[in-house]
Amino acid sequence: MRRGFSAHLHARVAAAAIAAGATLAGCSSVAQPPERDEARASGEAGAAAPAQQRPCPEGVAPGTRCFEGADGQGAFYWIAVPANWNNGVLVLHAHGGPEFGAPRSERTERDLQRWSIWTRAGYAWAGSTYAQGGVAVRAAAADTERLRRIVIAQIGMPTRTVLHGQSWGASVAAVGAETYVARGVAGRPPYDAVLLTSGVLGGGTRSYDFRLDLRVVYQAVCGNHPRPDEPPYPLWQGLPPDRKISRAELQARVEACTGIGRPPAQRSEAQRRNLKTLLEVIHIPERSLVGHLHWATEGFQDIVFKRLGGRNPFGNIGVRYRGSDDDAALNARVARYRADPSALADLAADADPGGRIGVPVLTMHAVDDPVAFVELESAWRETMRGAGTDARLVQLYTDDHEHSYLSDAEYVAAMEGLLAWVERGDAKPAPQGVATRCAALPAAFGPDKGCRFLPDYRPAALDARVPPRSDSR
Question: What confidence tens digit (pLDDT) does each residue in 272-327 have?
Fold first, then answer.
């Protein structure tokens, strides 16, 4: 019998508490209560300054008016309104990442350039940097909702608002869609529909397990992160709070161990063996190895020390790693950690969407996504099923091999299907119908239209890709 995500997490936290010999009673939580989220979204800490018109980035539809502004709480935003905005649809963007530094307006300018397809398809666009860096899902959702209110003040009420979350931003959008539901004076919900693309949709308590696996297997194989001459630390920390490592330095360590970045013929036999072990045990492609390891360093450091007060939300007790030349020897060398149940619960409170979304939700994911595994979509379906909202979910899959961007035509076809669903009410778009519409789009959306939908594809369960943890599930 399948369980919804709430039940799944409850069992996971309970198991962790038993394993750790602890209870959740009396543990402090870093999650902001709902009233704090609402206050943040309302902008009570500071008023937004009027946006200033700026030249649009390259690729934005000709005649579009672009505006740059600051929201009064530390976030920067851009708004783009195309000249042919005759349908009145606003695409409100929640960006991925997350970024770990201070917010910079250039980030959202780049997002507008990347997603300029929305202006070329006739939709207005708005995106925020968020007011803070790091893994703070509910704060980012509040920043995005605050931007929606700014857009209304700046350009007027859209006829429809689609909340678009990309990558990690899909979690932000999913949390925002279930948090901000109060209807306005016209009786309309804040968001009419939700589009989640290449989404990290397993929640913070499941989506990052494979990165802990990567850290412990990498150290067992390579032994240079940390190096023997560096002070040791538990790998679930990512890095101790007072230490930094640049991506270039991390790349150099990975190259020394695996030869990555060199032609295969220039790698030693030991490097080829090490690389093969990492890729086959963790089930990731070579091109994303350094990126995932970097995230399991800086990202874990942010979660552990900035969000959880130094407590550990990651565990790998009970995981048996398979795919090496000698699995028994590998498993004997791998470090083992237990998740702190209070940390697990607090991470869930901030970073796990509950799926309680009352408007149509459409997801689109490449089956060969090297960053956010397509199996995360199975976890998301289970989350919405557990919330009793899966009737509002349609999932699309494409034969693409990228994460950050698929094709103009695929996004336009998906958006058209989603908006038609909103207008019709109960007529969900069929994957085959979206694929057919994609092929019929005007040539302006690409010479070959980039239509690679797989209407019959269904991903495996997430546990088939990432081993479950017996201490925390």
Answer: 999 999 999 999 999 999 999 999 999 999 999 999 999 999 999 999 999 999 99
CATH, domain range 31-202+353-464: 3.40.50.1820
pTM: 0.90
Token pair in block for residue 386: 């557990």
Q: Where in the chain is the domain with CATH 3.40.50.1820?
A: 31-202+353-464
